[in-house]
Amino acid sequence: MTIKDTAEEWEVRATATPFVGNKTSVRTDDVVMPGGSVVRRDYQVHPGSVAVLALDDLGRVLVIRQYRHPVRHKLWEIPAGLLDVPGENPLHAAQRELYEEAHVKAEDWRVLADVFTTPGGCDEAVRIFLARDLAEAEGQRFEVEDEEADMELSRVPVDELVRGVLAGELHNNCLVVGVLSLIAAREGDGLDALRPAEAPWPARPFEA
């Protein structure tokens, strides 16, 4: 048996959108179950996101610390952001986020992992990139606001982040998945064997 996720869509008898927010909305679907019953499922509709594990020449990961109101925590995270434009190339979005949040550019980009963050209650899909060959970006820094105005920036050795994840001290899902995927890739076929940055992404199709 091949262990691989497969696309599938069960019949929806009725659908409604009881809430529409600034970036996301809530949808209610009446879904036909395998036995024929119909059950109601509520979930958040999300445009999708990108995240960047930026690895410097000293083996450190660029991380930011940001307040996240829903969980009432300041979390250490890797740079990330929404796919604001439908069909937007995720690589371009990732390059933008790395510039805006860290004022950094990278020459080498690869796909580290693709994940559904909360498939039981949200359709958000995230593509996590590995960025290497880092350098300071040119021009003025992007002007941040709201929660981002309070962000801290640091570069942390990979081993320290792994320790924090396994100790239950670091909780951001993109950081956790990204760091552990990095370790797995290193111990497997190597980072150069990762998928190219423009690899297809069925969860959020895009134009190259």
From TrEMBL:
GO molecular function: hydrolase activity
Domain Nudix hydrolase per the UniProt entry, residue ranges: 44-178
Keyword Hydrolase on entry: yes
InterPro entries per record: NUDIX_hydrolase-like_dom_sf, NUDIX_hydrolase_dom
Keyword check for Hydrolase: yes
CDD domains xref list: NUDIX_ADPRase_Rv1700
Gene Ontology cellular-component annotations: cytosol
Entry keywords, A to Z: Hydrolase
One GO term of the biological process aspect: nucleoside phosphate metabolic process
PROSITE patterns reported in the protein's UniProt record: NUDIX (PS51462)
Domain of life: Bacteria
This protein's name: NUDIX hydrolase
Organism lineage string: Bacteria, Bacillati, Actinomycetota, Actinomycetes, Kitasatosporales
